[in-house]
Write a structure and sequence with these properties.
This protein is of the alpha+beta class. It is built from 13 helices and 45 strands. The protein folds into 3 domains: 289 residues, Rossmann fold, CATH 3.40.50; 165 residues, Methanol Dehydrogenase, Chain A, CATH 2.140.10; 128 residues, Neuraminidase (6 Propeller). InterPro entries: AB_hydrolase_fold (IPR029058), DPPIV_rep (IPR040522), Pept_S9_AS (IPR002471), Peptidase_S9_cat (IPR001375), Peptidase_S9B_N (IPR002469), Serine_Prot_S9B/DPPIV (IPR050278).
């Protein structure tokens, strides 16, 4: 594992500047560059100059599946090192499949075809079931298996799964399955059985069963899943979303026809009606038997969200409910008595925990205690143990750093990822705590591995954590001591280029500069976000730094995450204030360092970052010469209601007119501004940029704008190349070759 890209990282005293971490792409060209050439925009677009991941799916405690470049699925035994072809690419080609899902008993494989993206996580697809049943015991692979001739296998001819399905899932045992079609749930007791319709009231944009609506998918679950199997598959929990009272947003898809079509999406904005979520449990042996898991009165009396569902046993389920203000989280344990789900114990998260989508609890083998990441009394996210009978959470970790998430819980140990090491919020390392009568001191499993290379790590564990794939996001991927992919081919490619260098310091990067450099900070700035981390990126900033000599920086100021609640919550009910001020303050600090040309400073951001960029440009500070806002928010009362602020917050913001971009329109006369948006943006609607444009026109501000027809928030496809080319040309005019006056 070798160092490839080298951005600068500098830690700044947050108590003085309210900035915790800065990431800078920095390149100084000179005679020492030798024959290396700059990393150009064309190189950035070149898909071969990318780091590659090693795809892996655990299917037992020592076996995993890997898809080769040729499209064959290989089954590997991590213990013996043996492997053989499990699924050939020819099988995929028979149904034009792009993905696969294996039943728990490994008798059937479901192939996914006709993938069609809907929103960020949701999609529709077609599913074909392949009969893989065999007398072979795949739990103990030996080399001899590689030479056995397997009997012919075929696709089931009568599957009874519709052509366009919104969700598919095997049960955790056997080959029972469920799917969602037309927002109704269907259950098959086994792969060859007839489908049983479980719900009957599903209707697009009104009642959705087993599939989240837009706002739950985007902001709560971060997935297309609203179905949860019990541990043995005896029960199936599902959420029902009622959108009948939710206001809709409409936008046009222009397509290629004579008339455009209209997309209608229930989209709750500030102060408007939220979707109503209910949780039900179905007996899979008798699907007509359905019971509701009722929200507790303390939460259900007002607007609330269903935040997470966790099965403990077949008869115990843990559900997290959150008040609309997101300042009160209730984890309710329910027990089933054969007829009803009864409230047992409850854990209420401190009201100080604002703006936080709660992480799921991880239950121990005794089924009465669980671990959870939550804020401690000092306002830092830490690992806590909660025993149901005691009703009190005990902290397992502590300090002025944060546990990011729990990776795995076994009967003997708990594994988690934190940013404790070296006190750097942007780092990630894997830790292990042994479980017994007491908890051992945390042991860092990745801190000493490739110290100069791997400072942003994660792990993907086998069933019982005997093995795990370690992901080092610097292009090295490690399984125990076996290197699965080291990306040496990328290392060799990059030797051709003049790449940015990396330094670390407590205040400023050192620079033997003979000239002043243009400066270009990138911003997101949304609550609990983090951009200045130690994750490897080969991106647009690499091109700007290497070819154009522009210093590119990212800041995590007030409102950002993983540095304690005080910093994250500082912009609660104050959006558009401190996070904008910190951008201006940090830029002025860089000017004071002496190697920044104060006449050539720009700023850019996407989504909430587009909002912060626009607010900074409209502040009238005189710091920035130009800026680019991609898919920006203009006013928070036009954004979805779960986007980190509450109804009361929006009412307060409506009074504070200076928190909108449009209220600062007149100040844009002194800057150059590029406004970019996709017309089919389902997240931050084109309406937001339209309002900015209208306000700028009213103030007679000259600005540039670019829209991308029928493109969503990510601006993918051909729009991606066009966007970065257009932004590069804009920066050329503003920073590299400024117009003479």
């Amino acid at each position: 594992c070798l160092i490839i890209n080298k951005p600068i990282f500098a830690v700044v005293d947050s108590s003085k500047m309210h900035l915790s971490l800065i990431q800078v792409h920095f390149h100084v060209s000179g005679e020492d560059a030798g024959s290396n050439r700059p990393f150009t925009l064309a190189d950035y677009f070149n898909d071969t100059i990318r780091y590659k991941i090693y795809n892996l799916r655990w299917i037992s405690d020592n076996e995993y599946l890997h898809k080769t470049r040729q499209g064959n699925i290989m089954l590997h035994n991590a213990e013996t090192g043996d492997f053989f072809e499990y699924i050939s690419n020819n099988t995929f080609e028979q149904v034009y499949a792009t993905d696969y899902i294996i039943s728990a008993d490994r008798k059937y494989i479901c192939f996914e075809s006709n993938y069609s993206k809907q929103w960020r996580h949701s999609f529709t697809a077609s599913y074909s079931i392949y009969d893989y049943d065999s007398s072979l015991n795949y739990s103990s692979i030996t080399k001899d298996l590689m030479f056995l001739s397997l009997s012919p296998r075929t696709f089931l001819k009568s599957v009874n799964i519709p052509q366009v399905v919104q969700y598919f899932a095997w049960a955790p045992t056997g080959n029972k399955l469920a799917y969602v079609w037309n927002y109704n749930i269907y259950l098959k007791p086994n792969a060859t059985a007839e489908a049983i319709q479980v719900t009957h009231n599903g209707k697009e944009n009104q009642i959705l069963n087993g599939a989240p609506d837009w706002v739950y998918e985007e902001e709560v679950f971060s997935s297309n899943e609203a179905i949860w199997w019990s541990p043995t598959g005896k029960y199936l929990a599902y959420a029902e979303f009622n959108d009948t009272g939710v206001h809709t947003i409409e936008y046009s898809l222009y397509g290629n026809g004579q008339y455009p079509s209209t997309v209608v999406v229930p989209y709750p904005k500030a102060g408007s009606t939220n979707p109503k979520a209910k949780l039900f449990v179905v007996d899979t042996i008798n699907p007509s038997r359905r019971t509701q898991v009722v929200v507790p009165d303390s939460i259900g009396a007002g607007d609330h969200y269903l935040s997470s569902v966790t099965w403990v046993t077949d008869e115990r389920i843990a559900v997290q409910w959150t008040k609309r203000k997101q300042n009160h989280v209730l984890l309710q344990i329910y027990d089933f008595d054969g007829n009803n789900w009864n409230e047992n114990q409850v854990l209420v998260t401190s009201p100080q925990t604002l703006w936080y989508v709660p992480l799921q609890p991880m239950f121990a083998e005794d089924h009465i205690s669980f671990y959870k990441v939550m804020s401690d009394t000092y306002g830092y996210k830490h690992l806590h143990l909660h025993i149901i009978q005691k009703g009190k959470a005990t902290p397992i970790t502590s300090g002025k750093w944060e546990v990011i998430y729990i990776s795995k819980l076994t009967k003997d140990a708990i594994y988690y990822v934190s940013n404790e090491y070296q006190g750097k919020p942007g780092q990630r390392n894997l830790y292990k705590v042994m479980i017994g009568r007491s908890h051992s001191a945390p042991q860092c499993l990745t801190c000493g591995l490739y110290k100069d290379r791997c400072q942003y790590n994660s792990a993907y564990f086998s069933y019982n954590a005997s093995y795990y794939r370690m992901d080092c996001y610097g292009s090295c991927f490690v399984l125990e001591l076996l290197v699965l992919r080291d990306n040496k081919d990328l290392e060799e490619m990059l030797k051709e280029f003049q790449m940015p260098t990396m330094q670390r310091g407590t205040l400023r990067p050192s620079c033997d500069c003979v000239k002043l450099y243009a400066y270009f900070p990138y911003r997101y700035g949304g609550p609990c976000s983090q951009k200045a981390d130690y994750r490897y990126r080969l991106n647009w900033g690499s091109y700007l730094s290497s070819t154009e000599g522009i210093i590119v920086a990212s800041f995590d100021g007030r409102g950002s995450g993983y540095q304690g609640d005080k910093i994250m919550h500082s912009i609660y009910q104050r959006l558009g204030t401190f996070e904008v001020e910190d951008q201006i303050t940090a830029t002025r600090k860089f000017i004071d360092m002496g190697f920044i040309d104060k006449e050539r400073i720009a700023i850019w951001g996407w989504s909430y970052g587009g909002y912060v960029t626009s607010m900074a440009l409209g502040a009238g500070s005189g710091v920035f010469k130009c800026g680019i806002a991609v898919a920006p928010v203009s006013s928070h009362n036009l954004l979805y209601c779960m986007s980190t602020v509450t109804v009361s917050t929006y009412k307060q913001l409506s009074i504070q007119q200076n928190s909108t971009v449009t209220s600062r329109a007149k100040n844009f006369k002194s800057v150059e501004y590029l406004l970019v948006h996709g017309t089919a943006d389902d997240n931050v609607h084109f309406q937001q940029s339209a309002q900015i444009s209208k306000a700028l026109v009213v103030q007679q501000v000259d600005f540039e704008a670019m829209w991308y027809t029928d493109r969503d928030h990510g601006l993918g496809g051909p729009a991606y190349h066009h966007l970065y080319t257009h932004m590069s040309q804009f920066l050329q005019k503003c920073l590299v070759k400024p117009k003479s006056i």
